[in-house]
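User: Just a sanity check before I run the rest of the batch. Below are the structure tokens for the first item. I only need the designed sequence back.
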């Protein structure tokens, strides 16, 4: 902008000086019969108009539409809309639950991943309820048959196994508080022997890392199907004993 002003002032000066020289030369040649002042004013006005037109049209790169000098720093909000940090459940549905790497998500993401597996395997109602005050329930799903499945998710490292105290806390709430028809504990790790014994005694389904991989890859049925079959068999045994 400063360079343009200097050029404009210089051009006006050149035009004005040339006009004065021209008028004086013409006046001395004709014996002073030419009106100097009006001609000088006209020449200055013409030069100014030409200068203004040049300033407007000679630098198209500074126009408001295309001029980088007027754009300024980029607007941080003027970014093409794209998904950033999608909820983990949405990621599971996009890439497919079968391709999910459970170790690549955090604890919250793992809960959403398990919820997505429930939805994939036919549960029409799935809710992630984990958080402060969840009383052991991280995912609650309703199967197509109307069973209420209460799941606790343990996103543990390979060397950190789920212990019996974890199972006991969940066992104290999954049926009495959450009214589960099927109670499930899912972990990316494994269970200690006392934890597995307690779960078997309380009808809690345990899904360790290997079982989770098989469920994720659809190599095994969802955990509630095995529990339902076992309960049906037990009920039939009770009914048979009662009629014998």
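Assistant: Here's the designed sequence for the first item:
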């Amino acid at each position: 902008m400063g360079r343009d002003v200097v050029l404009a002032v210089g051009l006006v000066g050149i035009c004005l000086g040339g006009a004065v020289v021209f008028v004086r030369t013409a006046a001395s040649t004709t014996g002073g019969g030419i009106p100097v002042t009006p001609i000088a004013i006209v020449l200055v006005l013409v030069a100014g108009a030409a200068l203004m037109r040049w300033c407007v049209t000679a630098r198209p790169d500074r126009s408001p539409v295309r001029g980088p000098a007027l754009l300024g720093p980029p607007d941080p909000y003027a970014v093409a809309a794209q998904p950033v940090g999608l909820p983990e459940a949405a990621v599971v549905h996009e890439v497919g639950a079968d391709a999910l790497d459970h170790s690549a998500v955090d604890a919250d993401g793992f809960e959403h991943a398990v919820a997505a597996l429930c939805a994939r395997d036919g549960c029409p109602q799935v809710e992630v309820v984990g958080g402060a005050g969840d009383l052991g329930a991280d995912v609650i799903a309703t199967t197509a048959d109307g069973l209420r499945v209460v799941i606790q998710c343990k996103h543990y490292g390979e060397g950190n196994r789920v212990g019996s105290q974890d199972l006991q806390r969940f066992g104290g709430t999954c049926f009495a508080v959450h009214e589960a028809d099927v109670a499930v504990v899912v972990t990316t790790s494994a269970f200690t022997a006392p934890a597995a014994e307690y779960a078997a005694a309380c009808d809690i389904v345990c899904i360790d890392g290997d079982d989770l991989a098989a469920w994720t890859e659809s190599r095994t049925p969802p955990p509630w199907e095995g529990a339902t079959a076992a309960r049906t068999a037990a009920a039939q045994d009770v009914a048979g004993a009662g009629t014998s």
